[in-house]
Each structure stands twice: as C-alpha cells, then as structure tokens.
C-alpha cells in the first residue's frame, strides 16, 4: 500500500460502521430542542436580538437548576463527609456530625474516596431496608436485596440488561407505558430488545387499563417473548398517581402472565392531589398474600434526584429486588462489580434521604420546614399549571396528581400538521420548536415520549419559581392562540 | 390455567432465561477470592479462630482504603461546593474558595445538585483541555473533544459500545493486551464483541512487541473484524511504562492497519522507575506529524481514582476523542445524554485535579507537599515490593516502573497444578485461595487478567502502608516456600 493510501484512508469509526443499536437510541429530554435552546442561550449572551431575553427550560426535572434550594441538613453532612476536619468545628449540629460519622466509619479508610462494595455501602443498604419497612407498614426488607445505584437510570438499565436475550420471535419484549420516560425506549434500543407499548388512558387521567395490557401482551406474543412489565408511578411524563386497585390488578396480571415487574417509583414523595396516595408495588404485592409475595418477581427503583430533595447531580439511587432467583442475583452482583461502585457521595446522600432527622434531633425542625415548604410549593404549582393550561382553548390538561410534569393534549391545526410533515418533523416537535424560537420556552414534544396516533402533547415541568411559572404559562397561552390562528 | 398452576410457576428470570452475554462476564478484581475475603473478615469479627488476625486486601487499587490521605485542598473545595454557607467561614483558604465559586457558578442554580450538561460542565471541560495542553507541551486540545465520565471505566465502556457491531466473521474485534485489566474483557463479553489478545513481553519488562501485534491481528482477521487496539500505559496489572519509541511504533501500526486507538492513561502520574517517563499517546501522535495527527482516531482516558489523589469513590474521569467522525461524535453525545450526566462531585474533583493550586496561591505549598509525599512513598513501595519478591525462590518480579501493582511470575509445583485442575480451579486461583486461608492476604490470581499458557502470576497492589507491606511481603515469601515444599 502506498504511503498516500495509508493516510488518505477513511475513518475506522463512521456512521456506517458504528453500532447500529446506538444509532436507534433516542432521548428527547435532551434532544434537538434542548440543543437548540442551548444555542439560543449562547446567541442571547452574544447580543443577538430575540423576542425574549431569557430561555426558560421546562424540559427536564432539574429542581436545583430551577432555583429549589438543597436541604440544609443533607449538605451539612456531605460537607462533613468531604472534609472530616469540620467534625471539629462548632458550626455544625450534633445530628449532622453523627450522621457523617455513621457514613464515614463504613467507608474504607474512613474516606468517601475509597471504593465501596459494588452493591453499595453495607450500612446504607441497611438504612434503605429500614426505610422501606417503615414506608410499607412493616413489610420486611432484606438489605441483601438492596443495590445502590448511580441514579435510578443505572438500576433500570442494569435490570433490563439481565432480562434481554434471544433473537427473532424469541427476542425479549419489555412492556412500557405510552407515554413513557424515554430512558426505557433508549435502553431497549441499545440492548436490541423489543419495545412493547401499552397505552395509558388519557380520558381516565392517564390510568392503566387492564384490557389494554391484555391487548398489548397478546399482540406482542405474536412476534416476541414479552418477559417484563415496566410501570412508572407516580407517572412521568403524565403525572398520574395509580390507585391501589390498579396496582393490585397489575400485579395479578403479571402473576398470571408470568411477567417480571419493574416499578419506577422515583416520585414516591411527589403526590399532590387530594384523595391520591402513593402505594408501593412491594407493599401491595405483600398485601395480596404469600401466593403473590412469594412468587412475583419485582424490581423497584428510587433515587435522590426527585421528591423534595431534587439532588440530580449526585446520581444517587437504589433498587430493591424481590423474589429474584439466587443464581440470577449472583449474576447481578457480578455485573455491577465490573463498574466497581456507585459514586460514594451519592450513596451518602441516599443514606440521608432514608435516614433523615428524627423528632428530638437538633436538625429536625429545620429539615421538616424545608421539606414541607418544597412539597407544598410543588403542590401549588401542580394545581396552578393544570388550571391555567385548561383555560387555553385547544389545550386540555389532566390533573397533575403527582411527579413533576404536566402533559397536556394540544389541538394542532391541519395546516400545521401538514407543514410539519413536509419538514419531516413530528407536528408537536414543529410546535415546540416554534414556541422556543418565539418565546424562549423550552418544552419537550409529546412525540419524544410516545402518544396515541393523531394526538399531540408536550411535557412541561412544574419546577420554575411561581412568578416565572405564571409568566411561562401566560406565554404558552398566548403562543398557542397565535399559532392556532396562524395555521387555521 | 388452574390457580395452582398460576402460582407454582417457575421464575421468569432464571440462569437459563437471562442474558447469556452477562453470564460470560468475568471480573476477577472483585471475583470469588474477594468474596471469600469478605466472608473471612466476617468470621474474624464473629470470633472464629484463624492463623491470622486481619485480612490484608492487596487486590484492588483503592488507595484511601489502604490509609492514603486525601489531598486537603481537594476536600476543602468539595466541602465548600457541598455546603456553600462555608464560603462565609474564615477557616478556608482563599484559593479553595475561589475554586469552589468557579465550579458553583457553572452549576445550574449554583448547586452540585443540578444535572450538568451530559458531556460535563463546560468550565471543567475547558480546564481539562488546558491541562492536556500543558501536559503535552502545547499540543492543542479542543474542549469539545473532552467528555467527562463516571470514572474511566464508564468512558471505556461507552467507546466500546460505539465500536461494536456485526455478526460472525464481520463481528467487531478489539485488541487488548494480555495480561489486561478485566474491565476490557468484561465489557467485550457483555457487548458480544470478539476479544483479540496480544501478549505483552514478560521477558522484556512487559513491553509491547510490534511483531506480536502483527501476529495477533493477522490471526484475528481470519475470524472477525478487528477495529480497535487498547493500550494501558502505565500498565495494569503489569506496571510497565512504555517507551516513546514503543508508542510511536504502536501509532504507526494503528495507522497502517486502520485501528481505532484506545489509550487508558489513568496512571499517568504514577511513574517511579529511573529513566521512565510518561508519554501520552496524543502527544506522540502529534509529534509524528499531520499525516498521523490528522487521521489516526484516538480516545484517551483519565480518572480521579489513581495517581496521587486516589479518589476512587467519587467516580470522576474524562475522555478525549481525537479525529472522531463528526457524525459519530453526535451519536456519542446523544448516547451519553441518556444517562443524564456524570456525578457532579466527581466532575468537581476532576476540575481540581486538572486545575490544582499554583505557585503563589495560599494552598500551593501544602498541596505540593502532600502530592510529593504520596508519590515518593509509592515509588519507595514499588521498589521494595520488587526487591523483596525477587528474593523469594520461585518468584520473579519485573520492575514496577509505574501504576500501582506488581505482577510477579510464580513457579507452581506440578502436584499443585494437578490438584487445582482436579478441583476445576486455575492453578494460581488455587494458590491465591490457599494463601488467603492461611495468611489472610487477598491477591488476585494472574488467570483473572490473562497470561501465557503454562505461566502463573498474581497481582498485588503496592498500596498498603510500608510497615504492613513489609509484613505482607514476608508472609508471601513464607507462604510461597511452604506451598512449594508441600506440593513438591
């Protein structure tokens, strides 16, 4: 080969030679619309004139970025764990110091810089187990079934990894709700599994429907091997909180149809609507009696990123596995060991979430005040969002019963749909892109989460500060009317 | 189906129905021998009598767990970032405060609790780029080519994910050194790629050999499509530091043979032997001129876990990609966005590593003192380990030029090999297991890293405190002689 031929070669790794499964991955929450929002922010900084002065990012459940303050106690303990010299300082309350000592004594060399056990620090897993027992009214939890994770996403992907196999008609199918959080579709694409859609019932406040589950499963069995059923409760992007009855039905269905259950419960403290209550899948499973609690396989997921703490950046989380085959569990433990351990500061934070200040401890009052204030404010903003959106002609919004998002239905004029299609864009992407360019508001189109054909939505977080949220909602109202007029 | 049939069903997820690729994963560094070590620790705590009173874990490069102290400055800044109230406190030096402000102003809502950009915080990537430029004598680095990661492992697995595709004879092959760090073999097993072994030359101090690369590649091309070549320098588990000439040869080889280069350089500050120096693959690539620097695709990896900081628990790291096809880069950015972002405390720590105290700043003297003390001590222990091991009849140890491990060759008597095989164990696993049971020393058998057929090794970290390291080496000496006698 001539020198020239050697050097004028094409790349080894090109779009044509790369992993095709990775190409199939889509993740709308940080997709093209968010990339454009970042560009616009840059243009604004460079002085480009726009019909607005700031981009409002309502695309992602990132509470601190939207001004929510961290819980003081959590951050005091994290500072103490980071720099244990501070244990000698008088500025920290005693309970913060004792929590820091509790965590540090469980770290190698008493340092957060040591690797932990791959499954997570022992004492943190024990604290998680006690938290789950309290939460579920005494249903027992074995710390050996608890795995700490790098956020909930990590746990979910790990579980899917274990489940997926086969080719052709025996390829693993995984049932996910539509609309869904796109981590699921992304992970399934990457793993080459079959995404099996079941639709939430928008007319009934995005509830799960047993007949729809049956339809979806029967359909899927014609071309793949459905093995797992994923549920997000409270719902993302849809904000519903499932009733106890519904959860019971889902568990009976999973038992009957031999499906591994995956319950994404990261919004378990984010329940706002009157009459709604969070029921963990595990608790309901055990209430159904040993026929179910001894057999149905369940993995449930929690995180430090949502609820009242909103500590996304620390990437803390856990999963609990129930009725997992011991041989599979050994494989799971081996698999997580390859990545050594979840980040220790995230593990420490997870410990604080499940082992928060108790009545009588010095930090209790402040902790409760901060927690309650955050959750009340979220409840208020959930209500506000639903109410204002429902005043807009052409927008219909289900109650935001929980989680951090509204997912309203938007009517789009035929001409807009036609124009979008001519551009090769989903109509609600076309709509959201226009809204971003004209108002600076960054939302995620419903097509990024999935929706019934011919319906259109967007996901909007309820996280901006109340003042800003009101401005945002007024702008959405104005834009929607203008858009409707323009394309009618 | 009867009620009974419903409930007496087998598990959905069993060892037979799970992902077979996961079953193929092996990770010796936290494998069966470490699990046994943890058990023994528990037995000791419960009062079980053993011929030793403590387990010494020399299986993993976990510096803080072995008593190494964190760098004061790093931990001060992390405490400030965790609890910014401390910025008002007089106990912290001004440079620590200014670094904390630098990091916090780049975080959403000035909080480490916000998600960062998926590629990592902008200012941290800029600081990384400047660090790389300084390290490489001015070779330019574009921050857009820098991706922050969850430890180096995360970056390596992500790159392999992009590269792997095909089936049968067109399946992607990835060349890795033998001995290797088992993350590589584990990731390749999970991805279903072909592991292509090239052997390091133990006789020449574990150097890379061009002819061996050629042999390995030619062999591999008969049954797969080799696309990438991975190098660990300084070496893990083998501790060699590659010469500039060798790196040049490898780059020319990769250019000629169209291989994507992956350079694992996490031990770049861990160079101890006289006459040895760390050369980054990127620097050498650019010194070879534009024919190479404009064409050869390279990803290099660094981490907060090793060198003088040893902050494994924070899971911080970065990768730099050179000459990556822009379309592939867009796919990479999309892929990492699915997992939202690397842990922000780890990103902050990475920033401190690449932007450490400078002459004239208040923390400079202490920082340099701590850094130098740690590296000197490691150099001393590297020498000590090599020297003592080489006094043992039947053990031959190459110089520990860099990294954190010795990987001595051990002669095992035929009877031991036979007994091991009868138990279905690798002979060096049999040896290490016996050593653990009799002395409490936890090492990793060479078979977990790969080695030439018929040779046996173990990997031992040089991290224990000098006193303990001496005891450990004396015990290894004694055990080896006893073992040899017993099986001769």
UniProtKB/TrEMBL annotation, chains A, B:
Q: Identify the EC number(s).
A: 2.6.1.2
- InterPro entries annotated for this entry? ALAT1/2-like, Aminotransferase_I/II_large, PyrdxlP-dep_Trfase, PyrdxlP-dep_Trfase_major, PyrdxlP-dep_Trfase_small
**Record keyword Transcription present:** no
MF-aspect GO terms: L-alanine:2-oxoglutarate aminotransferase activity; pyridoxal phosphate binding
Record keywords, A-Z:
Aminotransferase, Pyridoxal phosphate, Transferase
Which cofactors must be present for this protein to function? pyridoxal 5'-phosphate
Q: Which SUPFAM superfamilies does the entry link to? A: PLP-dependent transferases
Q: Which GO terms describe its biological process?
A: L-alanine catabolic process
Reactions mediated catalytically: L-alanine + 2-oxoglutarate = pyruvate + L-glutamate
Keyword match Transferase: yes
**Chain's role:** Catalyzes the reversible transamination between alanine and 2-oxoglutarate to form pyruvate and glutamate.
Subunit organization = Homodimer.
Q: What is this protein called?
A: alanine transaminase
Lineage, opening ranks? Eukaryota, Metazoa, Chordata, Craniata, Vertebrata
């Amino acid at each position: 080969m001539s020198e020239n031929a050697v050097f004028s070669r094409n790349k080894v790794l090109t779009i044509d030679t790369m992993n095709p499964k990775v190409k199939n991955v889509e993740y709308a929450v940080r997709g093209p619309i968010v990339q454009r929002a970042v560009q616009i922010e840059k243009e604004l900084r460079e002085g480009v004139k726009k019909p607005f002065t700031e981009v409002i990012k309502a695309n992602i459940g990132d509470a601190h970025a939207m001004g929510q303050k961290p819980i003081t106690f959590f951050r005091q303990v994290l500072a103490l764990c980071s720099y244990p010299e501070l244990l000698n300082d008088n500025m920290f309350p005693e309970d913060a110091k004792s929590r820091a000592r509790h965590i540090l004594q469980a770290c190698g060399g008493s340092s957060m810089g040591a690797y932990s056990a791959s499954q997570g620090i022992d004492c943190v897993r024990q604290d998680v187990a006690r938290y789950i027992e309290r939460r579920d009214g005494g249903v027992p939890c074995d710390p050996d079934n608890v795995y700490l994770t790098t956020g909930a996403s990590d746990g979910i992907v790990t579980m899917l990894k274990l489940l997926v196999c086969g080719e052709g008609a025996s390829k693993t199918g995984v049932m996910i709700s539509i609309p869904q959080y796109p981590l699921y579709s992304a992970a399934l694409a990457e793993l080459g599994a079959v995404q099996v859609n079941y639709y939430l019932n928008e007319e009934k406040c995005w509830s799960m429907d047993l007949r729809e589950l049956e339809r979806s499963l029967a359909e899927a069995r014609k071309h793949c091997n459905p093995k797992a059923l994923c549920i997000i409760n409270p719902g993302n992007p849809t904000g519903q909180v499932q009733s106890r009855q519904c959860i019971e039905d889902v568990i009976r269905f999973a038992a009957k149809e031999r499906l591994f259950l995956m319950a994404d419960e990261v919004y378990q403290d984010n329940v706002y609507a009157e009459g709604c209550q969070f029921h963990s899948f595990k608790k309901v499973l055990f209430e159904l009696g040993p026929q179910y609690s001894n057999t149905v396989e369940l993995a449930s997921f929690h995180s430090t990123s949502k609820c009242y703490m909103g500590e996304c950046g620390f990437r803390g989380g856990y999963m609990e596995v129930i009725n997992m085959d011991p041989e599979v569990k050994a494989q799971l433990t081996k698999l997580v060991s390859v990545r050594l351990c979840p980040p220790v500061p995230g593990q420490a934070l997870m410990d604080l979430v499940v082992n928060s200040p108790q009545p009588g401890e010095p930090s209790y009052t402040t902790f409760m005040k901060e927690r309650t204030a955050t959750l009340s404010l979220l409840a208020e903003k959930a209500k506000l969002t639903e109410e204002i959106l429902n005043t807009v002609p052409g927008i219909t919004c289900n109650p935001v019963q929980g989680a951090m998002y509204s997912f309203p239905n938007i009517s789009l004029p035929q001409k807009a749909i036609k124009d979008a299609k001519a551009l090769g864009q989903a109509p609600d992407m076309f709509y959201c892109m226009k809204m971003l360019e004209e108002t600076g508001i960054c939302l995620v189109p419903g097509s990024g989460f999935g929706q019934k054909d011919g319906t259109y939505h967007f996901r909007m977080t309820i996280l901006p500060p109340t003042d800003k949220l009101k401005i945002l909602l007024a702008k959405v109202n104005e834009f929607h009317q203008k858009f409707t007029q323009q394309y009618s």
